[in-house]
């Protein structure tokens, strides 16, 4: 049986959970990453970099899973009142968000794989995590690691800008267009039509 148009508009609980879990994890990771420069070298910094790598790898695979899910299930429809340009900007931002959410942790994994310091990655101090192939065998590993750190930093700026734009668009939907774009992504409302949004 075909799903009704109305129910197809709402996100599943798993989509809502993944959305907010990843949003919080990414904001924490950006704060942590930008804070590294201000931390003195030592055990605490090493421990935090270990946590950063572990959470980053989880974000990488959750990002890939979300992308696969979105491709498999098609994107939920945007509100009908949105103009053509609004729709284009929204879908471009969503594509760029996927690129950044996958590309940023991937660049971190590439960086630690290329690093001549050969610091092993052990996820949450439990699961030894492999380096990516080829990178550990390259010459000029120090130079490559520096390029990758620069790429990692720039991607963090791009991701932060995309998240800010995405959040402002959601608030605009809620307070100016007064549609249910934000409410349908809120926890507890999963699958149910908010009463005050006809
Ligand atoms: C969404 C995920 C991630 C975010 C938002 C993020 C963000 C950042 C930011 C903002 C920095 C500071 C860059 C700079 O100051 O130049 C950083 C540094 C770093 N990141 Fe990530 N990162 C993520 C994932 C990863 C992953 C998956 C790894 C490795 C497996 C990783 C390894 C590192 C390392 C080694 C540093 C440098 C730490 C230092 O020595 O100062 N990151 N990250």
């Amino acid at each position: 049986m075909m799903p009704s148009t109305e129910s197809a508009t709402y996100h599943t609980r798993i989509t809502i959970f993944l959305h907010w879990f990843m949003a919080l994890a990414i904001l924490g990771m950006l704060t942590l990453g930008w804070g590294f420069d201000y931390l003195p070298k030592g055990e605490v910094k090493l421990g935090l970099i270990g946590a950063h790598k572990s959470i980053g790898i989880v974000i990488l695979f959750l990002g890939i899973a979300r992308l696969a899910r979105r491709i498999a299930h098609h994107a939920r429809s945007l509100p009908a009142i949105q103009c053509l340009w609004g729709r284009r900007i929204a879908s471009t931002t969503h594509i760029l968000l996927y690129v950044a959410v996958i590309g940023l942790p991937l660049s971190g994994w590439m960086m630690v794989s290329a690093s001549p310091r050969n610091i092993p990655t052990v996820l949450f101090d439990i699961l030894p995590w492999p380096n990516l192939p080829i990178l550990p065998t390259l010459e000029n590993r120090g130079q490559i690691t520096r390029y990758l750190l620069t790429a990692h930093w720039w991607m963090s700026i791009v991701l932060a800008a995309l998240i800010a734009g995405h959040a402002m668009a959601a608030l605009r939907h809620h307070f100016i267009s007064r549609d249910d774009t934000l409410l349908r992504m809120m926890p507890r409302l999963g699958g149910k039509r908010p009463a005050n949004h006809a």
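The two ends are 25 Å apart (CA to CA). The helical segments are 5-8, 13-35, 43-73, 84-114, 141-177.
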